[in-house]
Write a structure and sequence with these properties.
The protein is α+β, with helices and mostly antiparallel strands and 235 residues long. A hairpin with a 2-residue loop joins strand 4 and strand 5.
Length: 235
């Protein structure tokens, strides 16, 4: 039953990715055309640039859905997590500010890892947006993101002071189409695919995605990836 369910999820994910990509091509194309004009004022150019960045991120997310359906590992190259974290935070920094979030970044030096930058950025983005949603309406809105390394692994932690996740929901959190939205909780775009795709990406990279949470206190997600030296040694 589980095998059939996952096969159906994969088929649906591929279909959603295809249909979304058809729409996104138009958004990205017109944004590129607009940015090619020389008569745009700086504010308008900035707006179109943000539209283009969001459309590119949408394109990368469809690749993530296709990766979920086909179990692909992506195009991995050697790189460091810290610039990926910084670039991803830049994408949503304005949204976090507008939501009243107090962001603390602790980007400690970490070893390199082999990764698909777009896919890992997608995971981090999803965790940041989940944290923002979890803290909506909360008196304390403290969001912390840090990099760390331990036991030949590198990590990105995203911690919030949101509503937390009920113990009965934790075992189902990474199940495709399971979402705690609608009440208190987290859940990507509310479709229940965000965290399942994120964990799939982590596992395809030889890593893991872990969660710790307490209701009324907050939640911490940790993305673990093998250090480049450890991965090369295993090979």
């Amino acid at each position: 039953i589980r095998s059939e369910r996952l096969a159906a999820v994969g088929t649906l994910a591929a279909g959603v990715a295809h249909e979304f990509n058809n729409l996104n091509v138009g958004i990205l194309g017109f944004a590129e055309l607009a940015l090619g004009r020389t008569d745009l004022d700086p504010d308008t150019r900035t707006c179109f640039d943000r539209i283009r960045s969001a459309a590119r991120r949408g394109r990368d997310m469809t690749e993530g859905l296709l990766g979920f359906s086909r179990a692909r590992g992506g195009q991995r190259t050697r790189g460091n997590l810290r610039p990926v974290v910084s670039e991803t935070v830049d994408l949503v920094w304005r949204q976090l500010q507008q939501a009243g979030m107090d962001l603390e970044m602790r980007l400690h030096p970490v070893p390199d890892t082999f990764m698909d930058r777009s896919q890992i950025g997608q995971v981090i983005l999803n965790l940041l947006l989940n944290a923002r949603h979890a803290m909506t309406g909360r008196p304390l809105k403290q969001l912390t993101i840090e990099t760390d390394s331990r036991d030949k692994r590198v990590a990105v932690r995203v911690q919030d002071t949101g509503c937390g996740i009920a113990p009965e929901s934790l075992p189902h959190l990474f199940t495709p189409f399971y979402s705690t939205r609608g009440g208190e909780g987290v859940g990507g775009s509310g479709t229940g695919l965000g965290l399942s795709v994120s964990r799939m990406i982590a596992e395809n990279h030889g890593g893991a995605l872990e969660v710790e949470s307490a209701v009324g206190v907050g939640t911490r997600f940790t993305l673990w990836l093998p250090a480049a030296e450890a991965a090369a040694g295993d090979a």
